[in-house]
Each structure stands twice: as C-alpha cells, then as structure tokens.
Design brief:
By secondary structure, the protein is an alpha+beta fold. Helices cover 29% and strands 25% of the residues. α5 crosses α6 and α9 packs across α10.
C-alpha cells in the first residue's frame, strides 16, 4: 500500500520542486527510470510514474506514494522499451490525486505523447481559460496538461516544430521531458529556473533534474540543458535547437540552500561545495559564542560543517533524525501530530547537557517546527542555543515551482529578526546576508532570489501566480 502523505501546508518546509527523468537507448528503460526516480525521491513524494516506448507503443504506470511503493518488478516487466520518462510529484498546482500524477499522456495527430514537468507556469490560468473557451477538455488540474494541449493544437506538422511553438508563450518555470514513440525531448525555460542535466550511460542518453540520478546508474554528467534549449534524442543521437533566446537568467538559489541532494551537480556546480561555502560565509558574518556546532539533519549538514570549519568550533551530532519518517508522517490525531518534531528528531542528551550550542539550519519558513526543536534542545539540557541560518529570511512566496506558504504565513512577515529570535526562544539568531549567499555561487547575477529579495524575474501576482487550479472542473 502507498504510504499516506502529508497534505498541503503540513510541516514547516517549502515543498520541493518535482523531479523528472528521461532515458533513450537503454534495453531496460523502465528499470533505469525506476532507479533514476529513486534518486530523485526527495523532490516529490506525492505520486510518481513512468512512461515507456518500445518504438511502437507508449505504456505508462502511475500511482500515489513513493517510488518503492508504486512499482514492483512485475510492473516494470510490463513496460518494455528502450526509451522512457519518469516523474516524482510534489504539487505546486493542482489537487493531490492520481489524476494529476505524471507523466501525463495524450493521443493527438502526431501519435501518443507523454510529458513530465518540473516547475510552475505562471500564466496557466489565462492559457487554460482561453483553451476551454475554444472547446478544449482537460482531464487534470495540473498546469502541465496545458503544454500537451498546446503541442496537440500547434499548427506545424513536425513534432519538434510543434513543441517549439507550444513552449513559446509559456511564462514561469518549466523543465520538461517529453516522450514520443521514437524520440525523447527535453526543454528548459529561457530563464533556467529549475535544473535539468544531460548524462551518458554507455550508448544511452539520460536526462535528469539532478546528477545524482546518473550516479546510481553508473552514468556520468555531461552538461546542463541550456535555458531555452530543446534537446532531441533519436536514432541519430542527441541534437538540439534554441527554441527561445535566453532571457534574464534566474536559476533557483534555493536548490543550493535546501532542495537538491548534496551529492548532485545542479546549475553546473556541486551542491555540497556551495553549501559548505554558505556555512563558512555565515560563520564569518555571525560567529557564535558556543562550545560546538550541530546541524538540523539532513539538509543543513554541509552548511553546518562549513560553519564549524570556518569558526574553529568542533562539529557534533546533537540531533539524530529518524529516516524512516522522512517527510511522509501524518497522524489522524492532533495530539500525536503535534509531536511530529519528537518523532522526526531525537536529541543526544550526553552531547547537549550543559553546553552552549550553535545550531545551523538552512532556512526558517513558518517557525513552528524550529520553535519546538529549540524547546527540545533546552529540555535535553542545552545551556544556550544560538541559531544560525545559512540563507537570508524568507520574506516572499515562490511562484516558480516551489510550494511555499503565502506571504502572511511566513514568520518574517510577522516579525523582524529580534522578534523571530524571541518567538523561537533562542539566545541569539542570525541569518546569512543576501550578498553573502550570492558570493558563494560562481555567477551571482544568474540566480533568482525572489523569495528573499522580492525581485521576481517573471512578473506575477499572488492571484495569477499562486493559483491552485482546483476549481470544480
């Protein structure tokens, strides 16, 4: 049975952007996609799916839950073919239901197509309303289906030309993989919001949101799909065309702060190295009078190590995470739900008792989880708790493929930094500055910092951008 998943709004973390994967030219494309999605599980835990082509037929298997829950060996055996795409979903638009699981499949003039999408199309409501007025019928509430409709009704005969026509006019963030019976396509929006990389595995080509999916297969990372680039893989190999000229580049800085796995390469940089730089920069900006440094595992481990090395303080394991809970825990009883922090983390009392502790975390969203965590550290005997955050305060919601709370729900909208310190109950609190964060990446001007700075690269309104598309359709 699929594990039950937390509903929207549960927890105190931004929900990840989805994960997409593609493979061309592998005799076991379904099994390859399964392993790739396993590596990308952190990017989406609500649903998953794989579509495979044997050169004549496109078959799919989708389900609610984690990759290991949805797929069995028998399922993969029923998906023969040498090319496939896969998807892990964390909804940023649309209802949490099987109808919104991806890949989404459609039959049209050019045959059966399947699409998997990572991102958020900010003008989806307007596009969908216009299509419905012309008689289009939608089967899901996901913005991804809009792209397939645009491909199906494009005026060109060639499929590559149809896809180019379809992506022009889309706004927001969209990294795509599209499967036809004999070809694999990958596209990245002209701003490059979300990561998308190209890899090789022997004679096979791989596409993935993160390079960690190549590693599990024994493949190698080649390069990123360029912003505005449409990559086509067919019997002649890999070739590409620039479908749209790159606009203002706006790579999501939060991939480095929190989302991506530390062993991945995204935006052509190693995530672990960037996170250690964030920790070192934080230590220089905000030293703590503490006995040692601990992380809030696992996402802040690298930043905490960087902070410890730069500050000269020892790194200790003060919190142990229960990995069997992950981000999927939910209880029907409110009294038990309130104990979620205790279920997910346990303090190491022998380490904490009587000590001044510098706690490094990557971000604070609502603050409710951190407040409980600080109380836990106090109850375990910590004499002082000094909180250091390896990113600036989150002051604005994201409209480009990350499910963050509304602006009113963000703790920074209700409190200044001293007020957040008092609400959390810590002895001191400091965030990394925006300039300090950007100095840790190779090309600072190429990154989107809207959730911190309010500078949105693609104009959106909260009504148009934070839609849910869960109208009674």
């Amino acid at each position: 049975m699929p594990r039950r998943l937390a509903p929207a709004g549960h927890g105190d973390r931004p929900r990840e952007a989805c994960g997409v994967f593609g493979v061309y030219g592998h005799e076991e494309a379904a099994q390859t996609s399964y392993l790739g999605l396993y590596s990308l599980q952190h990017r989406g835990q609500e649903s998953c799916g794989i579509s495979v082509s044997d050169g004549g037929h496109v078959r799919s298997k989708l389900g609610m839950g984690l990759v290991g829950d949805v797929f069995r060996a028998a399922d993969l055996a029923e998906l023969p073919g040498r090319l496939a795409i896969g998807h892990n979903r964390y909804s940023t638009t649309g209802r949490v239901s099987l109808v919104n699981a991806q890949p989404i499949v459609v039959d049209c003039q050019v045959g059966r197509l399947a699409i998997a999408h990572n991102g958020n199309i900010t003008n989806a409501v307007q596009l969908r309303d216009a299509m419905e007025a012309r008689g289009h019928i939608f089967h899901s509430t996901s913005d991804s289906e809009i792209i397939l409709h645009r491909v199906a009704c494009a005026g060109r005969q060639d499929l590559t030309a149809r896809i180019i026509e379809a992506v022009q006019g889309l706004e927001g963030a969209f990294s795509l993989v599209i499967l036809a019976k004999d070809r694999l396509f990958a596209y990245r929006d002209p701003h490059g919001f979300r990561p998308l990389g190209i890899g090789r595995l022997g004679g096979a080509w791989l596409i993935s949101s993160e390079s960690c999916a190549f590693d599990i297969l024994g493949g190698r990372y080649e390069r990123d799909v360029l912003p505005g680039e449409l990559v086509v893989v067919d019997e002649r190999g890999l070739h590409s065309v620039i479908a749209e000229r790159p606009g203002r580049l706006a790579h999501c800085i939060f991939e480095f702060v929190y989302f991506a796995r530390p062993d991945s390469i995204v935006f052509e940089e190693n995530v672990d190295k960037v996170r250690r730089k964030l920790g070192r920069a934080l230590a220089r900006e905000a030293p703590a009078a503490a006995d040692f440094v601990i992380s809030v595992p696992d996402s802040s481990n690298s930043a905490a190590l960087g902070y410890a090395h730069e500050s000269g303080l020892p790194f200790e394991f003060g919190l142990i995470r229960n990995h069997y809970v992950g981000r999927t825990f939910i209880s029907p009883r409110q009294s038990v739900r309130d104990q979620g922090v205790l279920i997910k983390f346990n303090p190491v009392r022998g380490v904490l008792r009587g000590k001044r502790v510098a706690v490094v975390d990557d971000s604070i969203v609502r603050g409710s989880t951190m407040r409980k965590l600080v109380r836990m550290l106090r109850d375990a005997g910590a004499a002082e708790v000094h909180l250091r955050i390896s990113s600036p305060p989150i002051a604005n919601p994201c409209f480009y493929g990350i499910d963050m709370p509304t602006r009113e729900e963000l703790i920074r909208s209700r409190h200044d930094v001293p007020g957040i310190r008092d609400y959390l109950g810590v002895d001191s609190l400091a965030y990394l500055s925006l300039a300090g964060m950007l100095a840790c990446v190779k090309s600072p001007a190429r990154f989107c910092t809207a959730c911190f700075s309010g500078d949105y690269p693609v104009p959106v309104s909260e009504v148009a951008g934070k839609f849910r598309m869960d109208r009674d359709l």
